[in-house]
Amino acid sequence: MNAASTPDALPENWLFRLLPVPAHPFLRLARLDRPIGSWLLVWPCWWSLAIAAPATGGDWPSLWLMALFGLGAIVMRGAGCTYNDIVDKDLDAQVERTKNRPLASGQVTVPQAWRLAIGLALVGLIILLMLNALAIWLGVASLVLVVIYPFMKRITFWPQLFLGLAFNWGALMAYAAETGTLAAPAILLYLAGIAWTLGYDTIYAHQDKDDDALIGVKSTALKFGPRTAQWLFWFYAAMLLLLWLAAKQAGLGWGFGPLFIAAAAHLLWQIVSLDTEDQAVCLTLFRANRQTGGLVFLALLAGSLTA
């Protein structure tokens, strides 16, 4: 079964051409065929490094820390997704989009999946130990969110909120790694990231809403239904307000403004383009948040350089 057996995977991933076929299910289990999740995980980290630069007397974020958080995002996203699939194995088998995932389809056993998750987590631990003490303790604390997240869809219509809490924790860790402290800009960025995740993951969840309703799984897509666009407006408005406040608290310069406006326009495009009944549109808009994160990073970087 190839990498395209999951509908939202990229059909032509270089890793599948490089590595032997027996490794392919493990690559898909770690979501290496779907890099969008790693981008969404790393952007808040890089945002924080960009906004922290003036606080440390520099203009540019640390390239070393950017590399560490970039690699850390890939391996910890892989570990988290593998753990999530272990927990959701039986549910995934009942959902059209996820029934061909390696665990749900039987290509990988649960013990094999645990070995992969633990191996990736150990790599993540090695990376974590290269950071300062505050960042390390924040990294350890994040495990609580990672562990509880897969169970939230069983008990609340707001699992996207818990995903936001976990997925944007890197904003706090990166600021701590750069400055040795936590300050208002980092906390505001963290809150902005949560609002952003509530938006993009609600779009993503619309792909599974029919199956989710049948098997009793909850999501904001089911909660909001035809009112999703209105909710997206408020989530993205909150994100932009919090980003602006973070930039103001950090003392960023005029360079922040033009690219901030570009990011706002990109978010507005998502809302206007949304068709919650078209899975292809939902997937395209969800993936477009890679560009949203990039625009925000460039805005914060430009603001730092002109501080």
How can the largest sheet be summarized?
A: none
Give the termini separation: 52 Å
Could you tell me the number of beta strands? 0
Radius of gyration: 19 Å
Overall pLDDT level: 91
CATH class: Mainly Alpha
Percent strand: under 5%
SSE order: HHHHHHHHHHHHHHHH
Query: Would you identify the CATH architecture?
Result: Orthogonal Bundle
In terms of structural class, how would the helical and strand content be classed?
mainly alpha
The CATH homologous superfamily name equals UbiA prenyltransferase
Number of domains: 1
Multimeric status of the protein: single chain
Task: Describe the protein.
With 307 residues, the protein is mainly alpha-helical. It has one domain (17-305): UbiA prenyltransferase (Tetracycline Repressor, domain 2, Orthogonal Bundle). It is built from 16 helices and no strands. The protein has helices at residues 14-18, 24-29, 36-52, 63-87, 89-92, 110-128, 133-152, 159-167, 170-179, 184-205, 209-215, 220-224, 228-250, 256-273, 279-287, 289-305. Helix 10 runs antiparallel to helix 13 and helix 10 packs antiparallel against helix 15. The longest helix is centred in the N-terminal third of the chain and has 25 residues, at 63-87. The protein is globular, with a radius of gyration of 19 Å. The protein starts with 13 loop residues before the first helix and ends with a helix. The model is unreliable at 1-5 (pLDDT under 50).
